[in-house]
Amino acid sequence: MLHHISLGVTDLQRSAAFYDAALAALGYVRVWTDSSAIGYGLPGGGDKLAIKLRKEGAVPPGPGFHLAFAASSRDAVAAFHRAALAQGGRDNGAAGLRPEYGPHYYAAFVVDPDGHAIEAVINEPV
User: Fold this and answer.
1) Which domains does the chain have, with CATH numbers?
2) DSSP string spanning 102-120?
């Protein structure tokens, strides 16, 4: 259904360092860059996420909104969480099973430097 999503950020370099590290743990890379935005996706593909500089009025969506990234393994979920925290993210739930979402739902939750709630998840049996 979704083609891509964009998030407004107040400091492009800080956000780029955060998303470069967190998304690399999931196998995603920069697929384009310009002076005010960066797109991320699978190597050789188009962007699925763009971060865009919005110095004035950059406010994250309120409670109830979060963005979940697909992970290829539980190890990738844990690596995403570690990388995000190392780059200034705030812990919002360590890597682990979330039985309230299903018996195989394994996720980690962080808040990016601009306050966007993000998640890495794999929902498959081990």
Assistant:
1) 5-55+65-123 (3.10.180.10)
2) -TTEEEEEEE-TTS-EEEE
